[in-house]
Amino acid sequence: MKISVFSLFRDSCPYLSRFFKQINDLEKNTNADFEYFFYENDSKDDTASRLEQWSEGRPVKVLSEKANEKSHGSTLEPDRMMKMARIRNKMAELGKPVKSDYCLVIDSDVIFN
Description:
Elements: E1 2-9, H1 13-28, E2 33-41, H2 47-55, E3 60-65, H3 78-94, E4 102-105
Parallel strand pairs: 1-2, 1-4, 2-3
């Protein structure tokens, strides 16, 4: 079985240790092969470098760019929805064609067991 993990990141350093631990635990407790597709944009912290460090030796594609996207926070503004659709499509492009049995799309600040 193969699982593709897709995730977006922006200024995610406060969440990365927990995110990486959750992913590591998932790998250990699941009899599956994993691949990762990470899209990071406009981080002002060390998110991009931490993603690159964690990715070493793993099947990971990271797209990190300065897109100069406005930070909207958590809101239902139409501009934010269009921006999120645009960057999610960039993230999805990293994995095309998807050749896995399952895909997991998760934000870096989501807690799961």
